[in-house]
């Protein structure tokens, strides 16, 4: 058993998400072709906000 917890995106996690994405970019890019669109913390914030909006609208997370 591990301590991993899956939570909905939150703008308070933008910096951490951006750093993890950037740090693991080469590996993640194999399966996440949209990763080229995430180059700055603002791109990550836009992504998180789009996910939150999609959830609020009752839609799935945009990929």
Report what the structure shows.
With 63 residues, the protein is an all-alpha fold. The chain has one domain (12-56). It is 48% helix and 0% strand. It is built from 3 helices and no strands. It is globular, with a radius of gyration of 12 Å. It starts with 13 loop residues before the first helix and ends in a 7-residue tail after the last helix.
Query: What is the subunit organization of this protein?
Result: single chain
Tally of contiguous helical segments: 3
For the terminal residues, how far apart are their CA atoms? 29 Å
Sketch the topology as an H/E string, one letter per element: HHH
Which segments are poorly predicted (pLDDT under 50) over 5 or more consecutive residues?
none
Number of domains: 1
Radius of gyration: 12 Å
Q: Strand content of the residues, in percent?
A: under 5%
Shape call: globular
Largest sheet: number of strands, sense, barrel closure: none
Q: What percentage of residues falls in helices of 4 or more residues? A: 40-55%
Mean pLDDT, as a whole number?
88
Instruction: Output the structural class.
Output: mainly alpha
Count of DSSP E strands?
0
């Amino acid at each position: 058993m591990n301590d991993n917890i899956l939570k909905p995106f939150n703008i308070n996690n933008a910096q951490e998400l951006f750093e993890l994405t950037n740090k693991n970019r080469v590996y993640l890019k194999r399966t996440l072709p949209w990763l080229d669109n995430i180059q700055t913390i603002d791109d990550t914030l836009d992504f998180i906000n789009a996910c939150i909006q999609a959830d609020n609208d009752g839609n799935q997370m945009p990929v």
